[in-house]
Design goal:
Number of helices: 14
Strand order of the largest sheet: 9-8-7-3-2-1-11-10
Strand content: 15-25%
CATH class of the largest domain: Alpha Beta
Largest sheet: 8 strands, parallel
Oligomer: single chain
Structural class: alpha/beta
Number of domains: 3
Length: 501
Amino acid sequence: MFYHVYPRSFASSRGAAVGDLAGIQSRLGYLQDLGVGAIWLSPFYPSPMKDFGYDVADYCGVDPVFGTLDDADRLIAAVHERGMRIIIDWVPGHTSDEHPWFVDARSSRTSKHRDWYVWRDGSGDGPPNNWRAAFKGVPAWTRDPASGQYFLHSFLPGQPDLNWENPDVREAMHGVLRFWLDRGVDGFRADVVHNIGKDPLLLDLDSEQAGVPRFLFNDEAHTHEYLREIRSLLDSYDGDRMMVGEVVLFSTEQMAAYYGRGDELNLVFNFKSLYAPWRARAWAECIRESEAALSPQYAWPAWVLSNHDLPRHRTRYGGEAQARAAALMLLTLRGTPFVYMGEELGLPEADVPDEARVDPGGRDGCRVCIPWDASLGAGWSEEPWLPLAPEAGLRNVEAQAQDPASMLNLYRRLIRIRANSSALREGSIEVLRHCGKLLVYRRCMQDDSLIVAVNFSAAEVLWEDAPALAVEVASDARGEGEAFGGSLRPYQALLMSPRLA
């Protein structure tokens, strides 16, 4: 199981309003107790923070707000000492406009790094084509007054896209990977990695796609060549180094292609699950599409419910009961689960007032700080950089650790059971039943067999032909250790084992 840490909001070692690497190290005991196997860190590199670290000004450093390279080395070592692994965000598609490469690139049409980025002359009085960027739908091109050319940026104008057709760019980015691998990281989460290859003709989008960010349609064949080069680099290191890719394509078949034949990405996030509505049929389709598209020989699923880019799933799904059921489902699916920090506390999306919002994409509500205790600052010595989540006085680590029925302890139990069950770790999955309200699936590995049933509705649901089963875990902690009675309470999920007569 991976645990996703957004460093600004996890923990501070310095009594500051913003978290840091040493703060993460100070809370590793909490993550170990939770049962975390690996940690993924969002960017901590030097950055002007126009996109809060995803605009990288130096891939081989640490922004002073988060500490130093020595702090990074100590954190990596401390994670390994506790038997966990650590991966870090890698942003391959673009840099900050303050990165030395781009500063040189825009200095002259003949500069050394000019072709490290995507430059084109305009078309008539406007940009080279009709591509749009993320964030407010602005054009994906900005004119550079000094040279008169436009540069491509899939996101903010302060995030110019790298030109991966240039072999010097590829070698430089491979050097970044080697820098961190040599320091001991176990791998990377590759940001929007399907966007590194571009249509060499830069053709306009058609009328149906125009106005939608271009990166959502970017699926170029030569990207797979780049990924095979990266996989070869990773495989040259000892210790099972890996990369999980953010491939924001909503076709399961397209997503599956980024595993290659076991020679591209090790894992690819299943974004169909991230956007799936809270309905049994939708989740049954996610499971079946994943099983059909991912070759068992080459691909292993990666499941996620929330992250630093989307509203938290407790709010999206409607409340505490749904979030509990979703936790049981996430941690019993076939594949690797990724848990975003705060999910284990059942944090809802925070209602951040307009005057406090700082993110260009409006994602502040899912990025608020972890509440560690019931104190005024929730364990933060200064007022955190974003307002705290609702109910932080009750929904905090200290309070939930002492409550056996809390969301935190539900996660702890499920993670422990998963670690000890061959069926949940490696077994097959088979959807047994789904309708508008009920989803049932079986996990099986030789003699180890478990049944998961999830009620997606606000009404009691009958499972009339259910076999004899014993309830091992209930999302609402009701009926555990008892025989399954044939019905599920509203928004209840159950993990069950066969019951001997």
